[in-house]
Amino acid sequence: xxxxxxxxxxxxxxxxxxxxxxxxxxxxxxxxxxxxxxxxxxxxxxxxxxxxxxxxxxxxxxxxxxxxxxxxxxxxxxxxxxxxxxxxxxxxxxxxxxxxxxxxxxxxxxxxxxxxxxxxxxxxxxxxx
Length: 129
Description:
The protein is mainly alpha-helical. It has two domains: 12-56, no CATH class; 71-116. It has helices spanning 10-21, 26-33, 37-50, 71-83, 89-100, 106-115, 120-128. The N and C termini lie far apart (55 Å).
């Protein structure tokens, strides 16, 4: 049996309603999946209430922080990178301020570049061509 703080993968939780609908007992489900009864009852309750095995409020966008850079700022960053693919982060920070009057920290710019799938490897291969 898992410990008190063991995280059960979503694919295991997804099997609980399927097994229950196939007329397996709670005890059988616990034995097959190696989980506790409380998890089975909680998962079945969530499934009957929301139609999913996790709480929808857990992944709600209302609990997240607002993004610092909107899509127009990200498009500006992308355009600058296309024209100057070897630009440094501090130079990119100045360009963003000059063109969009938006200040972003270097770490925020780095995360944005990672979301755009722009890495050193991509930049070095483009520069070599």
